[in-house]
Amino acid sequence: MFTGEFQHTLDGKGRVIIPSRLRDGLGDSFVITRGLDQCLFVYPSSEWVRLEQKMKQLPFTKKDSRAFSRLFFSGAMEVEADKQGRVLIPQNLRDYAGIEKEVVFIGVSGRVEIWSESSWKNYFGEANDNYEELAEKLVDFDI
Description:
Oligomer: single chain
CATH topology: Chemotaxis protein chec
CATH superfamily: Transcriptional regulator MraZ domain
Helix content: 40-55%
Protein backbone atom coordinates (compact mmCIF):
# COMPACT_ATOMS: atom_id res chain seq x y z
CA MET A 1 0.00 0.00 0.00
CA PHE A 2 1.33 3.41 -0.97
CA THR A 3 0.82 6.44 1.25
CA GLY A 4 2.41 9.82 1.82
CA GLU A 5 3.45 12.92 -0.07
CA PHE A 6 7.01 13.56 -1.25
CA GLN A 7 8.56 16.48 -3.10
CA HIS A 8 11.46 16.03 -5.50
CA THR A 9 13.17 17.84 -8.36
CA LEU A 10 13.59 16.70 -11.95
CA ASP A 11 17.20 16.80 -13.15
CA GLY A 12 18.29 18.24 -16.49
CA LYS A 13 17.82 14.90 -18.24
CA GLY A 14 14.22 14.44 -17.11
CA ARG A 15 15.06 12.01 -14.31
CA VAL A 16 13.70 12.11 -10.80
CA ILE A 17 14.51 10.14 -7.67
CA ILE A 18 11.69 7.84 -6.65
CA PRO A 19 11.19 8.31 -2.89
CA SER A 20 12.65 5.33 -1.06
CA ARG A 21 9.41 4.74 0.86
CA LEU A 22 7.65 4.20 -2.47
CA ARG A 23 10.47 2.48 -4.36
CA ASP A 24 10.31 -0.75 -2.37
CA GLY A 25 6.63 -1.28 -3.21
CA LEU A 26 7.14 -0.47 -6.89
CA GLY A 27 9.83 -3.10 -7.38
CA ASP A 28 12.63 -3.19 -9.95
CA SER A 29 10.45 -2.21 -12.88
CA PHE A 30 7.05 -0.54 -12.97
CA VAL A 31 4.70 1.25 -15.33
CA ILE A 32 4.10 4.99 -15.67
CA THR A 33 1.13 6.19 -17.70
CA ARG A 34 -1.25 9.10 -18.16
CA GLY A 35 -3.46 9.44 -15.14
CA LEU A 36 -6.53 11.50 -14.51
CA ASP A 37 -6.66 15.13 -13.35
CA GLN A 38 -3.44 15.84 -15.30
CA CYS A 39 -1.15 13.65 -13.20
CA LEU A 40 0.76 10.46 -13.95
CA PHE A 41 -0.19 7.06 -12.54
CA VAL A 42 2.59 4.69 -11.49
CA TYR A 43 1.82 1.00 -10.99
CA PRO A 44 3.93 -1.88 -9.71
CA SER A 45 4.00 -4.66 -12.31
CA SER A 46 1.57 -6.87 -10.37
CA GLU A 47 -1.00 -4.09 -10.08
CA TRP A 48 -0.53 -3.19 -13.76
CA VAL A 49 -1.34 -6.78 -14.80
CA ARG A 50 -4.48 -6.71 -12.64
CA LEU A 51 -5.55 -3.37 -14.13
CA GLU A 52 -4.82 -4.54 -17.67
CA GLN A 53 -7.13 -7.53 -17.15
CA LYS A 54 -9.92 -5.22 -16.00
CA MET A 55 -9.38 -2.89 -18.96
CA LYS A 56 -9.69 -5.85 -21.35
CA GLN A 57 -13.25 -6.25 -20.12
CA LEU A 58 -14.28 -2.84 -21.47
CA PRO A 59 -16.48 -3.27 -24.54
CA PHE A 60 -14.32 -2.48 -27.57
CA THR A 61 -17.48 -1.79 -29.55
CA LYS A 62 -18.05 1.36 -27.49
CA LYS A 63 -16.32 4.47 -28.80
CA ASP A 64 -15.56 5.82 -25.30
CA SER A 65 -13.97 2.51 -24.26
CA ARG A 66 -11.72 2.51 -27.30
CA ALA A 67 -10.72 6.14 -26.78
CA PHE A 68 -9.93 5.69 -23.10
CA SER A 69 -7.96 2.48 -23.72
CA ARG A 70 -5.95 4.11 -26.50
CA LEU A 71 -5.03 7.12 -24.41
CA PHE A 72 -4.29 5.09 -21.30
CA PHE A 73 -2.17 2.39 -22.91
CA SER A 74 -0.42 4.53 -25.52
CA GLY A 75 1.07 6.61 -22.72
CA ALA A 76 2.22 3.61 -20.71
CA MET A 77 5.94 3.01 -20.36
CA GLU A 78 7.67 0.30 -18.38
CA VAL A 79 10.62 1.87 -16.57
CA GLU A 80 13.39 0.83 -14.20
CA ALA A 81 15.04 2.89 -11.52
CA ASP A 82 18.83 3.17 -11.76
CA LYS A 83 21.21 2.45 -8.85
CA GLN A 84 20.56 5.92 -7.40
CA GLY A 85 16.80 5.32 -7.47
CA ARG A 86 16.24 7.68 -10.42
CA VAL A 87 13.81 7.08 -13.25
CA LEU A 88 13.46 8.88 -16.56
CA ILE A 89 9.97 10.27 -17.05
CA PRO A 90 9.38 10.25 -20.82
CA GLN A 91 8.92 13.70 -22.38
CA ASN A 92 5.39 12.98 -23.63
CA LEU A 93 4.30 12.14 -20.08
CA ARG A 94 6.04 15.19 -18.62
CA ASP A 95 4.22 17.32 -21.18
CA TYR A 96 0.86 15.71 -20.34
CA ALA A 97 1.30 16.37 -16.61
CA GLY A 98 2.88 19.81 -17.04
CA ILE A 99 6.01 18.65 -15.22
CA GLU A 100 8.97 20.96 -15.69
CA LYS A 101 11.12 20.89 -12.57
CA GLU A 102 9.38 20.37 -9.21
CA VAL A 103 7.32 17.21 -8.75
CA VAL A 104 5.18 15.75 -6.01
CA PHE A 105 4.75 12.01 -5.48
CA ILE A 106 1.69 10.88 -3.60
CA GLY A 107 0.81 7.38 -2.50
CA VAL A 108 -2.77 6.42 -3.34
CA SER A 109 -3.21 2.89 -1.99
CA GLY A 110 -2.41 0.60 -4.97
CA ARG A 111 -0.68 3.24 -7.09
CA VAL A 112 1.61 6.23 -6.92
CA GLU A 113 0.77 9.51 -8.61
CA ILE A 114 3.28 12.03 -9.93
CA TRP A 115 2.15 15.66 -10.15
CA SER A 116 3.77 18.89 -11.14
CA GLU A 117 4.12 20.84 -7.91
CA SER A 118 1.88 23.66 -9.11
CA SER A 119 -0.87 21.30 -10.33
CA TRP A 120 -0.81 19.41 -7.03
CA LYS A 121 -1.07 22.62 -5.01
CA ASN A 122 -4.04 23.75 -7.10
CA TYR A 123 -5.76 20.38 -6.93
CA PHE A 124 -5.11 19.95 -3.22
CA GLY A 125 -6.42 23.43 -2.46
CA GLU A 126 -9.67 22.80 -4.32
CA ALA A 127 -10.21 19.25 -3.07
CA ASN A 128 -9.25 20.10 0.51
CA ASP A 129 -12.01 22.71 0.63
CA ASN A 130 -14.50 19.89 -0.05
CA TYR A 131 -12.84 17.15 2.04
CA GLU A 132 -15.64 16.81 4.58
CA GLU A 133 -18.35 17.01 1.93
CA LEU A 134 -16.61 14.30 -0.12
CA ALA A 135 -16.35 12.07 2.95
CA GLU A 136 -20.04 12.55 3.69
CA LYS A 137 -21.01 11.62 0.11
CA LEU A 138 -18.62 8.74 -0.47
CA VAL A 139 -17.51 7.13 2.79
CA ASP A 140 -19.98 4.75 4.39
CA PHE A 141 -17.86 3.52 7.29
CA ASP A 142 -16.09 4.98 10.31
CA ILE A 143 -12.68 6.45 9.69
